[in-house]
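Hi R.,

Here's the chain you asked about this morning:
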Amino acid sequence: MPFDFQPWPLRNPDDHLVVKVPAGLRKRADLYAALAQGGRFPEWFSNDWGTLSGCLLDLGWVPQPCVAIVHEDVPLYHQLEVCRTYLQILLESVQDWRRRDAPPQPRMAPAQAGGRARLRVVFPRAAFGKIHRRLHWQVL
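And here is the predicted structure, written out as tokens:
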């Protein structure tokens, strides 16, 4: 599963930059502001999907070894395509970081190898169904 659907306790807060996305965001500008401020995005971030993706795939300015984007709900949920685009960017970013952080043994799962994803995306458990509907995930 690319996203975490649970309360996510930090074992060592110094190892994480936690980006909190508050509940009730209905405008892209508000989402961009929450992510840019919490994630300490660089000046080249220009409040659009392309630079959001670029920031999430880079994270080179973050001194902590892990960034956790913690959502209180699914932002922009009532805007079908906008919400889907945001979730797809998160999904692709998490998958990209997992590929980079994968251990050299291709058959060993990252958890078995002690690997840690550089980017984690967390939603409340109640958001699973909403995300499933927006991304059209198949039930495994």
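One quick note: The first helix runs from residue 28 to 38.

Cheers,
M.
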